[in-house]
Amino acid sequence: MSNPIQDIPADLAKAYSDAFYVIHGEDGDIHLRVGQPSLELISSMKRYGAKSAAFLTAFNPHSILATAEVNVHKHNALVEDIKSLGLEFIAGEGGDPLNIWPSEPSVLVLGISHQSAELLAGRYGQNAYLWIECDDGLVSLNLRYPVRGLN
Fold first, then answer.
1. Residue 1: inside a domain
2. How many domains does the chain have?
């Protein structure tokens, strides 16, 4: 099946950057913002012995609204793929601060390699995902396609 996305519109890339991301950790919620480090996340990653993490979703591939049934099926398949890799994960969600787009159940995958994160994002049709390394806890937006409309 060919990929319907060749690039990401600039306004969509901005929406990913402006979105809120929450991890539902054992000690309470951890809020992430693109471009900002998270000391709480560093602490949680160290507890799991993880040097890296990716925040992934399987909802709404290529940012095209899918049915609840399709989204839940894809999310469950993503969780099974993560388990088959032998990786730990923590439930979370990503959302639109303006509430125009519904929040998307997501997972923080601990100890995943950048290559495996890219493969999972591709398998589930995601334009982007968050990447975090434990040394600085900086939350980086990893866009999988070029951005259209940047000056």
1. no
2. 1
First CA to last CA distance, the chain: 32
The C-alpha atoms of residue 18 and residue 23 are separated, in whole angstroms, by 16
pLDDT in tens, 58-81: 999 999 999 999 999 999 999 999
* E-state strands within the chain: 8-9, 20-25, 28-32, 52-56, 88-95, 104-110, 128-133, 139-143, 147-148
Structural domain that includes position 102: 8-148
Tokens found for residue 88: 């730990």
Q: pLDDT at position 27, please?
A: 84
Spatial separation of the C-alpha atoms in residues 83 and 61, rounded to whole Å: 21
Decide: pTM greater than 0.85. yes
Would you say residue 97 has pLDDT above 80? yes
